[in-house]
Amino acid sequence: MSKKSNSDLLGLYRTMRRVRTFEERVGELFVRGQTAGSMLHLSIGEESAAVGITAAMKPQDTFTTHHRGHGIFLARGADPNRMMAEIGGKEAGYCHGKGGSMHIADMSLGHLGANAIVGGGIPAVVGAGLSARHKRNNAVSVAFFGDGATGQGVLYESMNMAALWGLPVVFACINNQYGMGTRIDQATANTNLHERAIAFGLNGESVDGLDVEEVAEAARRVVDGARAGKPGFLAVSCYRFYGHARKDKSPYRDAGEEETGRQRDPVAFTRARLIERGLTPEADLDTLDAEIGAEMDATIDFTIAQKEPPLASMFRDVFDPEEPEPEPVRTRLNRVLATE
Amino acid sequence: MPELTYRDALRKALADSMAENPDIILIGEEVGRYGGAYGVTKDLIKEFGPERVIDTPISEPSIVGAAVGAAMTGLRPVAELMYVDFLGMTMDQLANQAAKIRYMFGGQIGVPMVLRTQGGTGRSAGAQHSQSLEAYVMHTPGLRLAMPATVADAYHLLRQALTSPDPVVFIEHKALYTMKEDVDLDAPVPPWGKAAVRRHGKDLVIVTYSRQLHYVMEAAKTLAAKGIEATVIDLRTLNPLDFDTIREHVERVGRAMVVSEGAMTAGVAAELAARISEECFDFLEEPVIRVAGEDIPISVSTGLETGSVPGPQLIAETAGRMLA
Fold first, then answer.
1. Which 3 state secondary structure label does DSSP give A235?
2. Across the interface, which of B67, B69, B74 has its CB nearest the CB of A135?
3. Fewest C-beta atoms under 10 Å: which of A7, A47, A95, A270?
4. Residues of B recognised as catalytic
5. Cα(A187)–Cα(A190) distance, rounded to whole angstroms?
């Protein structure tokens, strides 16, 4: 791993720090009452998975994410202002305030959508793999999901199809040890998740998410393998630092466990490594962190300053824009109850 | 004019559209080598190859989910669900994904896919292979829904569905596959979303779709012999719903019946009856009457099966009582 250059590791660190800080600002926006709802799932503690795997992807690649997908999208190159505005339910957001944290998407970055159904975004990558094969565009499609989704049948259907057809598809499992309040060993008989993929005929690997360089290396093997026609599965083991969603204080796990879990901090680990290897002076990292802090502070101000979507936009985009919009209930009532 | 079956017409629609548009793929159980459980896709794999006619494992959620992903990345997939009864297996991918993606993502992208399936009674296929579940689809914003009753519509509606920018659920009727008609496929076609008035009469409007159209037409003949003239509207698509045609005729005639094979309660007929009552109340001489499937599962016994859905006799009898 020491062959990694300064700029590589610093780049990975920078993106992880941006993800961490963005997520912290989401928490802040929530506390300030400026988010649309509380269904906000932070990926703090899981940054290496988002950053290491997206680093192995190419511009033409596509992906879907689970509900805890802010970090993946940001690492892929999303504009944090538009992301935060979407989380705030504002018109300037990626989906004009209709999607929010759990349904954010951006076709220009190949983001086929975050999903609020556990495992719901997985089969779409099989279809994207068929498109890539049909159009011969050398694109890989990556499904990101959590360990909770390994309980969903659709994952196994999709892994089977991908292996059967040799599609350029990767199943990326971010194993943060919890499906909501249920620890993985309370829901999963064999927690060596990659073994399942191997049984289906995929390249299957598990990697420790503490070390982003290891994640990036493993991701490169799996993504390159998929591009060459053998779909893959990568499980990244990490720890969900905070509750399931913003209102969850994790009463189902004890403080000792959280304490230990939070020591497995991929951002702090990478920062220490940069210093230890003499790659980046600590003072430079302090400066970088401060710059990122300011960048992400600005997303809050940006979001608060944005407009709510206009009420009439409610009827837009149910169908293609050239089709008539659904008739609003009030319009219909006025028509039906009009006196002659 | 060539004589075609409903099945031939569907197959021809797929073949013609696939020849025109290289991005159309078929994906589903037994669609390739077997040729489709009801033979609709017979030999298309020979014509278009296994990359465009894709046999799948028995994995309905991922069949529909793969179609969603393919549609979002530039293909125009036709997923086949062997029986509409399997809709429950796929409902997440259909209702939570396909139907909502354009909206949730703020109009960034549509999901131009067709989900072909078939439903209804008529083959003693039992409770899990004979249902009429169109209400599930019609109740889900974001989905289009076509249900052809005639051979010509089997062709034209499927051709039109394959140009829709939005997901279309296309429900064929299993009892119609062998029905034959002389069809001039070059004759002018009603636009997508337009109902067809199959018969004109001054006494009663009967609104229906799919196989029940044929029962209604048979009933209308019986009624005509007794001096009762019915207007018969075949909806062709339930979404878009051509309510303007319904309104025009109900306001002219003043009596309306809705006939559907689906279970009565909270079904398509209930929705149509409610709308007619709400919008045409001042013109109605009688309550809108629903004739629909019984609120029971479908049996394999031919007698029980036939008895659980409307037939020509019940339709004619009911119309007679409305006019008595």
1. strand
2. B74
3. A7
4. 60, 129
5. 9
